[in-house]
Structures are given as structure tokens and as C-alpha cells.
Specification:
Strands 38-37-36-49-48-47-46-45 form an 8-stranded antiparallel beta sheet, covered by helices on one side. Strands 39, 40, 41, 42, 43, 44, 50 and 51 form an 8-stranded antiparallel beta sheet that branches. The protein has a 7-stranded antiparallel beta sheet with strand order 11-18-17-16-33-32-31, with no helix packed on it. The protein is mainly β. It has 8 helices and 51 strands. A hairpin with a 2-residue loop joins strand 29 and strand 30. 12% of the residues lie in helices and 33% in strands. The radius of gyration is 34 Å and the shape is elongated. Among the domains are: 180 residues, no CATH class; 120 residues, no CATH class. The N and C termini lie far apart (93 Å). It is found in: Secreted. Keywords: Repeat, Secreted, Signal. InterPro entries: Kielin_Chordin-BMP_Reg (IPR052424), VWF/SSPO/ZAN-like_Cys-rich_dom (IPR014853), VWF_dom (IPR001007), VWF_type-D (IPR001846). Its main location: secreted.
């Protein structure tokens, strides 16, 4: 009797322990937001090593990757995604990344998302998702005739076709294609020019059906919510239940699970590959099956009749086959890609999937000439001669020369003309939007077999060549930009640099010598062309800074709008204004008119627009003339912006002519 009472008390105690444990787990399982990772907080920092990775001297910097983009340090999280994880590990003190609970299988730990095959049976596959291992058997599928089918390769499950084609459409190496858009779990892949196809089984998910979402173009559902848990040693958490070690449970009619050392090991049935369309299928509780349907030998699509086994394309991503009266279409599967700062996601002509394509290289000249090279190096140079700005120094396809005008000053200069040599063409872009082709003035728009030249709605002109080269010129000696396709990388030379992805060697002279920032004069003059007759000053002065006489307060007031969000929006989050502010201050000190600060404003605004940043009407806010406007006789006091923002005591005659040091 006493033993019976003790047994009942022990069972009661065990039940209370279990209920308490479940209650504690449920309390600890909190819904957390999608943005679980810690973010970097602080101020945006500027940088000069454009395009290069930046190492952070901070704790847990391994959780972030940073690089220099448009003069700013740009950082993003390098933690694995946990967006669809229903079981997040409680955060430990030695890491900044939130992680989905992993699995242990046969004594080996696996991270959530890991997939592997049985070394003794390549048809048996496993996948770990949030502490659940799903075991399935692949079902193979053939897309080719029997005489083109090859046996499985060593270590693989399914036979292969002799070429990577599906419905007559070529599949690229490494690319996946959905064999039937009616069954997106039926996937083929090209590997070493052999195509193999298999039916994928979706892994069992931790979240209940009400927290799952099936995306239209994906095979398997995903969890839509996240929960954080505190580890329960030796037990398994599944959904909202806790299972003891070696306990068996059945989540659905297709799946049987066993709790082993904190990981749920689940065997799941792989549904058969059906040859009938969805309207002739019915569900038996676990897998769909075909019901009897009329068998036809032809298919009709968009009014066109196709014979049995006939194939046709429906664009670069989709192809179809007539299969016993049923149309079966396959669709290319595009991988998710993340582009770097100097790349953009584009779909190449005739292809299905977008690719990260390097953006065009741009070189900019503005103001009392300030230069931004193809690789992002800023420097200033006020020579008044003719210089090789950019050229294809490998195959000599083109060259661009820039002629500067000193306008009677001792050290200042402004771009006067731009000359493009392209094959048998010599195109001169001059003042007031005058254009000459082989010495003859032409009217715009101008089109021939090699180039197109037209006026821009916002002012200035644009020259585009069939080589992909483009030149934008405002026609009033204030702004010039050259764009070249990425395939010109490592082929260029001149003042615009060598376009090799590094700013460190952009000041490379004609003789191959690399110059320092304090040797801009030597670097630039090594690219001088045309001799003394091309110079507007009989004697050039070396690029040495004179005694500072510019009123710094005045230049700061002039250039302040470059940091004002009301004028340039949120562009300073994408493009550092520091170099443009420095350029602006230099130009204000050298200014022969009242609007020289506008040159730096225009260059900064142009760079913002090039990156797709929408700007307010900055010209109205700053009273800067429209692009291409002449400003030779403007006076300081005529500028409403200056009246508003610059104290009258600072409106002094301009400082004596001097050349500021180069930008770094």
C-alpha cells in the first residue's frame, strides 16, 4: 500500500515537473521582431580609400563588413539571416549575431540551414532547420530521352542527361531550373554540362501552419514569426511542446519524429512526381495523386496547337513541352545576389537572371579645376595648357584632351574646350555649347555611325559613342564628366587616372612614376600635350600655396549649404560632401565672380542624381544660375542667397589670386 502511495506521489511529482517545465519554456518563448541584430550606431565617417574594405577597431567587428563608398564608410551586417527562424538561440555575451538553433545528428553539430547527404546512400538527404533534422529520399526525374540518359555519377543519386537543355532551352552551368511550374519542388541543375533532376521534399518547420507562408515562386513554406528560447538540456522543443529524449511524435500524416539529444529527427515521405496537371489531382492526406483524365495527343496554347513532345520558348526564363495533352512549363530559378557598392543589379539582354554588373567609371572636372578620377581620387590643378584627360592606352580606341584657360589670372584656370579623338573623328566641345566635328561646326542633335550628340533638358550637352563612352559638358567651363564602361578597367591613363579600382596609384605620370599628393603639379604636367602654344599663360606657376588671405568665415558661409538637408536632401548619407566643401572654399577664395561656389554645388548634385538620389530644387534655394548660364559679371551683392546667409561684413573684395593645396 505504501509503495502504491509512493508511486502515485512520484507520478504526481513528475507531472508537476513537466507542467512547470512547459510553462517556463512558454514564458521564455517570446515573439521577437525581424530586426534582431544589433546595428552600428554613431556618426557617418568620411574616407578616402575608395572601394576598399575598412577594418573596424571595435568589439565584434566580425559581425559587420565596411568599405569606402562615395567617400563615406558604408557598413552592413554580415550575420546570417534569421528572418524565417522560429527558434532563436538566446543571445550570448560573446557574439553580436543572433543565430537560429542548430542541430546535432549522430554526434555532429550542424547550423540551421545546413544540408547534407548520407555518405552510404546519396539518395538520402538531410536538412537542419531550427533544431529539426528532416530526412527524405530523393525521387529522380528525367528530362531527356532514354538514349541520352547516363547513369548516376559516383556519390550522386540521380541519372543525368548528356547536355544541359530542358524543353530545348539551354541551362547555364551551375544554374537551377524548376522543371514544372505546377510543381516548384521538381528542380533540375546543370553540373559539368550534365543535367540532373530530382523532387525536393520540404523540411518540417517548427512553427504551426498558421505561422507559415507559401511564396508563389518557391517550393517550400517559411515561418513568418520568430521566437527566442532558453535551452532545455536533453529535451526537444517542437512548436510549443517539449519532448523528452527518445520520445516519438507525429507532426503530420507524412512525418514521424524522434527526440534525440535535443534535436528532433524526422523522417518525411517524398511525394511522387505526377504527370497530370493540378486540375486532375486530388489530395489523399499526405500526397496528391492523379485521378483518371482524358488522354490527348495535342496541346493548345494561346491559339497555337502543339504536337505531343513538341517544345517552345516563352521568353528567356520559361520553356514548355506538350506532354500527353498537358502543357508542362519549366522556369529558370534565379539565385539571390548582393551587389557591391560599385555594382548594380541588371538583367543582361537575352538572359533570364539579373547579374551584378560593375557600374560605369566616371571622371569629373569642375570649378577652378578640381578632378575626381575614375577610382574616386580628388585633387586640384590649375594649369592653363592642354592635357590628356583620359585615353585608352592599351588599344588606343579613343583619347580625350582638355584645354584650360587662365583668363588673365596668374594661378587660376577653367576648362575651356574638350576634344575627343575617336577613329577618324575629331570632335571639339567648346564654349556656349558649340560643337565641331573634324573642324566643321555642327548643329545639335548630331548623329553619325559612331556618336550621338544632343542637348540635355537641364542644360549642357551629352555625347554618347557606340563604344559606350559618354561625355557630359555644360558648355560654360564649369562641369565636365566622362563615363566609360567597366571593360575599360586597367586600360586607361591620363589626368583621370588608370581606372584599376584603387585610388592609391591614380597620380601615375606618363613615365609610370607614382606621385604623392604634394606632387600634383609634376603628375599633371607629365600629361601636357601640344607644347607652349596650347598654354594661355606664357609662364606656368608651380602648384604652391600662397600666403592664405581668404576669409575662412566667408568661404564657410558660401559653402555651408552642402551640409544642409533642406538644400541637398539626404544625399550626405550616400555621398560625402567633404571634398566638395573643400573645393567650394578654394573656389570662393579664387572667385572672379559671385557664384563660383555654385560649381561645387552642381558637381555634388550631379553625383547625387547619378546614384538615384532625388534632390530638392537646390538651384532655387541657393540662387545658383541654371546649368550653362554665363556668370562673368555677377556681383556678390546681387546674389539673394549670399544676402541671406553671409553677413555684410564678410562681403569683401576677393583675395589675391592664389593656388590652394591639392585635395586629399
Amino acid at each position: 500500500m505504501a509503495k502504491g502511495i509512493q508511486r502515485d506521489q512520484q507520478q504526481s511529482h513528475n507531472m508537476i515537473t513537466i507542467l512547470t517545465l512547459i510553462l517556463l519554456v512558454i514564458i521564455q518563448m517570446q515573439v521577437v521582431s525581424a530586426g534582431v541584430g544589433d546595428g552600428l550606431m554613431g556618426h557617418i565617417e568620411s574616407c578616402s580609400n575608395e572601394g576598399e574594405e575598412i577594418q573596424l577597431a571595435i568589439k565584434n567587428s566580425k559581425c559587420f563588413k565596411c568599405s569606402c563608398q562615395n567617400g563615406l564608410v558604408n557598413c552592413y551586417s554580415s550575420c546570417p539571416s534569421t528572418d524565417d527562424c522560429f527558434l532563436l538561440d538566446s543571445k550570448s555575451g560573446d557574439t553580436c549575431c543572433r543565430r537560429c538553433k542548430g542541430c546535432t545528428f549522430r554526434g555532429v553539430p550542424y547550423e540551421s540551414g545546413a544540408e547534407w547527404t548520407d555518405p552510404e546512400d546519396p539518395c538520402k538527404t538531410y536538412k537542419c532547420i531550427a533544431s529539426v533534422v528532416t530526412e527524405t529520399i530523393q525521387k529522380c526525374y528525367s528530362q531527356c530521352d532514354d538514349n541520352q540518359m547516363m547513369p548516376p555519377r559516383p556519390g550522386e543519386c540521380c541519372p543525368t542527361c548528356q547536355s544541359c537543355k530542358i524543353n530545348g532551352q539551354t541551362v547555364a552551368e551551375g544554374q537551377e531550373v524548376v522543371a514544372s511550374i505546377d510543381d516548384r519542388c521538381l528542380v533540375c541543375q546543370c553540373n559539368e554540362n550534365k543535367l540532373s533532376c530530382a523532387k525536393k521534399t520540404c523540411p518540417i518547420l517548427q512553427c504551426p501552419k498558421t505561422k507559415q507562408k507559401q511564396h508563389p515562386n518557391e517550393c517550400c513554406p517559411r515561418c513568418t514569426e520568430q521566437r527566442e528560447f532558453v535551452p532545455v538540456i536533453g529535451k526537444c522543443i517542437f512548436n510549443k511542446d517539449v519532448y523528452y529524449d527518445k520520445t516519438q511524435f507525429t507532426p503530420d500524416r507524412c512525418t514521424n519524429c524522434t527526440c534525440l539529444n535535443g534535436t528532433s529527427i524526422c523522417q518525411r515521405a517524398t511525394c511522387p512526381i505526377l504527370e497530370c496537371s493540378p486540375e486532375f489531382q486530388e489530395d489523399d492526406g499526405c500526397c496528391p495523386r492523379c485521378v483518371v483524365a482524358e488522354v490527348r495527343s495535342e496541346c493548345t496554347h494561346q491559339g497555337i496547337t502543339y504536337a505531343n513532345n513538341e517544345t517552345w520558348n516563352m521568353g528567356p526564363c520559361r520553356s514548355c513541352r506538350c506532354n500527353g495533352g498537358t502543357i508542362r512549363c519549366s522556369e529558370m530559378r534565379c539565385p539571390q545576389v548582393k551587389c557591391r557598392g560599385n555594382e548594380e543589379l541588371k538583367v543582361p539582354p537575352g538572359e533570364c537572371c539579373p547579374k551584378c554588373l560593375e557600374t560605369a567609371g566616371t571622371c569629373t572636372v569642375f570649378g577652378d579645376p578640381h578632378f575626381k578620377t575614375f577610382d574616386g581620387k580628388f585633387f586640384s590643378f590649375q594649369g592653363s595648357c592642354k592635357y590628356l584627360l583620359a585615353a585608352d592606352c592599351l588599344t588606343h580606341n579613343f583619347s580625350i584632351r582638355l584645354t584650360n584657360d587662365g583668363r588673365g589670372t596668374k594661378r587660376s584656370s577653367w576648362p575651356k574646350t574638350v576634344t575627343l579623338k575617336l577613329g577618324n573623328l575629331r570632335i571639339n566641345l567648346g564654349q556656349k555649347l558649340r560643337v565641331k566635328v573634324n573642324g566643321t561646326r555642327v548643329l545639335l542633335p548630331y548623329v553619325n555611325d559612331a556618336v550621338t550628340i544632343e542637348r540635355l533638358p537641364e542644360g549642357g550637352i551629352m555625347l554618347r559613342s557606340k563604344l559606350g563612352l559618354a561625355i557630359e559638358w555644360d558648355g560654360s567651363n564649369n562641369f565636365l564628366q566622362i563615363s566609360v564602361p567597366a571593360h575599360y578597367k586597367h586600360r586607361l591613363c591620363g589626368l583621370c587616372g588608370n581606372y584599376n579600382g584603387s585610388v592609391r596609384d591614380d597620380l601615375t605620370g606618363r613615365d609610370g612614376r607614382q606621385h604623392g599628393d604634394n606632387e600634383v603639379w609634376h603628375f599633371a604636367n607629365s600629361w601636357k600635350v601640344g607644347g607652349l602654344k596650347s598654354c594661355s599663360r606664357p609662364r606656368e606657376h608651380r602648384n604652391v600655396a600662397a600666403t592664405p588671405t581668404c576669409n575662412k568665415r566667408k568661404s564657410s558661409f558660401y559653402c555651408r549649404p552642402l551640409r544642409q538637408s533642406s538644400v541637398f536632401g539626404k544625399c550626405d548619407n550616400r555621398v560625402s560632401p567633404d571634398n566638395y566643401i573643400e573645393s567650394c572654399r578654394m573656389d570662393v577664395c579664387e572667385c572672379p565672380s559671385g557664384n563660383c561656389h555654385c560649381d561645387s554645388f552642381a558637381a555634388y548634385a550631379h553625383e547625387c542624381r547619378r546614384l538615384g538620389i532625388k534632390l530638392p530644387d537646390w538651384r532655387t534655394d541657393t540662387n545658383c544660375p541654371a546649368a550653362g548660364g554665363w556668370r562673368r559679371n555677377n556681383q556678390l551683392l546681387d546674389n539673394e542667397f549670399i544676402k541671406k546667409h553671409v553677413p555684410h561684413s564678410l562681403l569683401q573684395p576677393r583675395a589675391p589670386d592664389r593656388t590652394p593645396p591639392p585635395l586629399h
